[in-house]
UniProtKB/TrEMBL annotation:
Coiled-coil annotated residue ranges, if any: none
Pathway given in the UniProt record: Ketone degradation; acetoin degradation
Domain Histone deacetylase residues, every copy: 29-326
Family membership noted in the UniProt record: Belongs to the histone deacetylase family.
Origin superkingdom: Bacteria
InterPro entries documented for this protein: AcuC, HDACs, His_deacetylse_dom, His_deacetylse_dom_sf, Ureohydrolase_dom_sf
Record CDD domains: HDAC_AcuC_like (cd09994)
Record SUPFAM superfamilies: Arginase/deacetylase
Gene3D superfamilies assigned: Histone deacetylase domain (3.40.800.20)
Keywords of this entry: Acetoin catabolism
Name of the protein in its database record: Acetoin utilization protein AcuC
Amino acid sequence: MSQGIETPTGKSAFVFSEDFTRYKFAEDHPFNPKRLVMTLELIKQLGLLEEQHLFQPAPATDEDLLRVHDSRYLDAVKRASLPTADPDHFAAWGLGTEDTPIFPGMHDASSLICGGTKLAAELVMSGQYQHALNMAGGLHHAHRAQASGFCVYNDIAVAIAHVREKYDARVVYIDTDAHHGDGVQWLFYEDPNVLTISFHETGKYLYPGTGELTERGEGRGYGYSLNVPLEAFTEDDSWMQAVRDVLVPVLNAFQPDLILHQNGCDAHRFDPLTHLAATTRIYRDMPKLTHQLAHELCEGRWVGVGGGGYDIWRVVPRAWTMLWAEILDAELPEKVPTDWLERWQVQAPFELPTTFLDPVDLFAPIPRRTEITEKNEITVRRALNGTPFLF
């Protein structure tokens, strides 16, 4: 495995450490690092990962973290990481809650994920690689001084702050997790050089309850936060229409130097924590669009991270394998390898899907499809109308 960034120029980098799996709250917590192991095994089974792609990250330093986090919060996370820490002492920082329990080694595990996304961004911005993936990243809910929604440190913000400081780059952050990308949005809310775009299930019924059309940015950053809150039970076609109708004109107008895309895959109908109705087709089509835009607008500079995804058996491994295949520009077979299915079926509580794309008739059409589609079209129009640099 390669160390640091001292390698020849290449196309696609895969940032990974086995220690990523130490970011684990509890055995029964929905944020389960087993999904990383399952996905990595599927990628390897398909022969899509070679030594030249692999990069071992170092933990983010305190200097890296302090670009986006409060020093008192870092101190609290370090103290909460001790084996003797009492969760009741850290509630003011959003730690020790049901969503984000404390665990021994939490600071080290969180810093390593931040270091991974920073390394992915550095590999791309330095010109050594066109694309890079850290599927352990995507902790988009962490705030400057508060943990939230399973997220302790915000690896995405750490990476963006790094490339802003070192390269003065204009960054587009795309968030297609089912939950609003609130932490990243608020951390760059006044920065006109960081455009945050979040497609998510409306906050009417889903955590964190933000991501309204009216959240546009502040000061010089006004217009550079763009939210597309989609209706519950949104299906593939309406989701992808919204994504295309927004990303193509907005990114063309903004002209980014780097695209960073958070690829949470909890909009799938199987996901137990959300109320959307997508299939794995959107996890093939969204990376394809991002890939195309990266080459059209910023010489291919594209960093992908993971994010949410709580059906670790039937959704996450297929979705993030399709993401890596797109980053690699590789064709996937129609079917999931038999050896991988046999390896994991004995542990899975559900029958594992045998194809990467869900069959078109897997789910019955939702009621109110026409009404939901029309509401989403109105939301997209209003989101674009409130984006001043388009006009």
